[in-house]
Design a protein that fits this description.
Strand content: 5-15%
Strand order of the largest sheet: 1-2
Distance between the termini: 23 Å
Largest sheet: 2 strands, antiparallel
Structural class: mainly alpha
Order of helices and strands: HEEHHHHH
Shape: globular
Number of strands: 2
Length: 110
């Protein structure tokens, strides 16, 4: 998939997908099985991640890792760019895609 195709793709909320703007481009966050396995290998059990998020104890590094692993078309987007996008957007605004991903983890996505 080309970068242009990735920009044109729209997230499907019924599948737990969300959008994240990185360097002025829209990217789809897709909580696929493979993405969630990769995230879990790095940051630990996803159920514990959900619990930490619910308790307000989720770390910025964990949010960045989850978002990075869930990028549907990562291309050459580095983890630092994802972290910078979260910081630029702010934690409150970044909670929207986070809730979508966490909801998909808990309930599954279509």
């Amino acid at each position: 998939m080309t970068r242009r195709q990735a920009q044109d793709e729209r997230p499907n909320p019924m599948r737990g997908e969300a959008s994240l703007v990185i360097d002025g481009r829209h990217y789809v966050l897709r909580p696929s099985f493979a993405a969630l396995i990769a995230a879990e290998e790095e940051i630990g059990p996803l159920f514990a991640l959900v619990e930490r998020a619910g308790a307000g104890e989720l770390r910025l590094s964990e949010m960045t890792a989850l978002f990075w692993h869930c990028l549907a078309d990562r291309g050459d987007v580095g983890r630092d760019a994802v972290g910078s996008a979260i910081a630029a957007r702010g934690l409150a605004a970044s909670a929207t895609p986070l809730r979508a991903l966490l909801g998909a983890i808990l309930k599954g996505g279509g």
